[in-house]
Every structure is written in C-alpha cells, then in structure tokens.
Amino acid sequence: MSKLAVQDKFIDVSDYGRPAAKMIVHSLRNSEITAIHLTLMFGICGVVSVIAILNGYYTIAGLLLILKSILDAADGEMARLKKNPSYVGRYLDSVFDIILNFLIIMTVWYVTGQSIWLAFAAFASIQLQGTLYNFYYVILRHNSDSGDRTSKIFETETPEAYPGESQKNVDLLFRVYTLFYSVYDMIIYALDRQAPLKKTFPKWFMTLLSMYGLGFQLLIISGMLATGYIDLILPFFVFYSLFILIFVGIRRTLLPAKQTKR
Questions:
Q1: How far apart are CA 97 and CA 176, in angstroms?
Q2: Could you tell me which residues come within 8 angstroms of residue 25 by beta carbon, excluding any fewer than 6 positions away?
Q3: What are 252-256's contacts with CB under 8 Å, separation 24+?
Q4: Residue 248 CB-density burial (10 A; 0-12 exposed, 13-18 middle, 19+ buried)
Q5: From the CB of residue 148, how many other CB atoms can be counted at a distance below 10 Å?
Q6: What span, in angstroms and rounded, lies between the C-alpha atoms of 25 and 161?
Q7: Distance between CA atoms of 20 and 3, rounded to whole angstroms?
Q8: Is the separation of the CB atoms in 199 and 144 below 8 Å?
Q9: Are 214 and 132 in contact (CB under 8 A)?
Q10: How many C-beta atoms lie closer than 10 Å to residue 158's C-beta?
C-alpha cells in the first residue's frame, strides 16, 4: 500500500497522520466505506475547522485540521487496500485541498483583520510550497519500482477513467483541477525544468522538502492556532516561501539532472 518502493522511502514529516490513517482503514476494510467517502469526510472536517476559527475555538480548529490530514492520508490508503485506484478520487482530493486552504487563509484574514493582499500572498505561498514538494515527490514515485503513478508529473491531458468510474466525472474534475493548479505547476516547472530528468533524489533532500507538504503546513497552522499566534500565520507562510528558491537551488546545483542522449 506504499507510494514508494522500500529503497526509495524517506522520512516524510508531512505524513505524520499515516499510522493513524492505516488504523482507520484497517478497521473499515470490510465496510462499505470507500476512499471517496473518506475524501468527503476530510472535506467536512476542514469546513468544521473553519467554522471553529470563526467562533474563536482555535484549539479545536487546530485538532480538526490534524484530523483532516489523517483522513486525507486514509483515502489513498483505502484506495490502495481495495486495489481501486480512481482519478475521480485523485482530483476530488486535490480540489478539496485547495478550496479548504483558501477558506482557512481567508478565515484567518477575516478574524485577524490583516491586509487582504497579505492573505492572497499567503495563500499563493502555501500553494507554491505544496506544488514544489509534489513536483519532486511525483517524479520520485514515477521512477520508483512499484511506485504509485495515479498522480502525473505533467497534468496536461485528461486521463482515461479507471474501470468503474465515469469518464464524464473524470473530465469535469480534471478541468476544475487544472483551473485551480495549472498556474502553480507552470511557475514551479519554470523554476526547475530539468527536474523530470532526475531519476531519484536523496532521502535527506526529500525529508527537508516534506516540510512543504500539506500535512506539515496544516500542523504549523494548528500549532499557531492552539498557542495564540493566529496573527503570525499569514506573514509566516509568505516568509516560508523563501525556502523555495533554496530547495530549487540545491536541486539544480548539488543534484544536477543528466541530459539523456537521443
């Protein structure tokens, strides 16, 4: 049920919810609950967290964001356990993520009364950070023996639906996905066009980069909410984006990709 072959696994600090996710999936393995159901559940969890922030229940909101991360991991685990990969689930998951990210950031902006431009910058920063992590991670997965390939390095064409899912639904969700994510994908690709030529990345590099994973981002937000630092959430993520250039610089200078001969 792993996304990577054993030799390619690294410590993913954004994936702290995986053990709990596996326990949930194991307990539900004989039920009628599907991966899509778990995706819908993490969407609801995120919305309830937003409501909690609006009402001043910051610690509860933070705990719900951590639960959201666990359920976010559980839907993929369920799909792999039941050997039922789904593009509908893959795109729905990503669409929910970006909508919830936007709602969380806009809610923090509303509660703190900070600049709307700071909120937009923080949202864009979170998305760019996550896109960089996913870009390198998907490359690694595609080059890993038995790695998960549901996500594509370049999401440019509507995939053919898996058996049991509607091509119409896949087409619709793919269009929504590209509408939301294409600009961030293009920015990250422009920063590191040679990355797809790299067959693998060192484990230390991927572990450091996993601090940009959505799970770790939500953990940071949760911690700031619970400790009363809600005012620092927006400026922190703008500052946090400075490391994008550092990670790309490391990849380009210390981990160069070799050109292949044709």
A1: 13
A2: 74, 77, 78, 81
A3: 252/192, 252/194, 255/198, 255/201, 255/202, 255/205, 256/194, 256/198
A4: middle
A5: 17
A6: 24
A7: 17
A8: no
A9: no
A10: 16
> What does pTM read for this prediction?
0.92
Tokens representing residue 216 in the block: 């770790």
For the record, the structure tokens of 52 come out as 């909690």
Burial of 34 (0-12, 13-18, 19+ CB in 10 A): middle
65 within 8 A of 11, measured Cβ to Cβ: no
- pLDDT at residue 230 above 70? yes
Burial 42-54 (b: 16+ CB within 10 A, else e): bbebbbebbebbe
Least confident of 46-60, 197-211, 219-233, 235-249: 197-211
Contact 88, 166 (CB under 8 A): yes
Query: Both tokens of residue 170?
Result: 């896949």
CA neighbor of 83 nearest in space, from 6, 145, 29: 29
Cα angle 212-185-65, degrees, rounded to a multiple of 5: 40
Q: Cα separation of 210 and 134, whole Å? A: 9
Q: Do 165 and 88 contact (CB within 8 A), yes or no?
A: yes
Cα(124)–Cα(241) distance, rounded to whole angstroms? Answer: 9
pLDDT tier at 247, thresholds 50, 70, 90: very high
